Amino acid sequence: MANLAKVRGQNKFLETYLRGTGRTMSAAQAQANYGIQRMAARVYDLRAAGLNVTTIRRPGTTATYRISSRDMTGSRAKVFA
After folding, report:
1. Which CATH number is correct for 4-71, 1.20.120, 3.30.70, 2.30.30, 1.10.10?
2. DSSP assignment of 60-76, as one string?
3. Cα distance between residue 70 and residue 40, in whole Å
4. Domain boundaries, the chain
5. pLDDT class for 2, splitting at 50, 70, 90?
């Protein structure tokens, strides 16, 4: 079972780093640079929390993810505080 505090910290980091900044991150970048080994699971958590996560798929590459500045309800408030 995953360490819950670690998962929450990763979700908080991803929200802060990606939300509304125009930055993107792939699973390989997340693992190599930040130690996040299950990026798809974190994306699932972010979507379940109501964030608008966009998946960008380009031929011959892995998926990259971006988070819009507003969540599903139109709010800009932090979800993972």
Report:
1. 1.10.10
2. TS--EEEEEEEETTS--
3. 21
4. 4-71
5. low
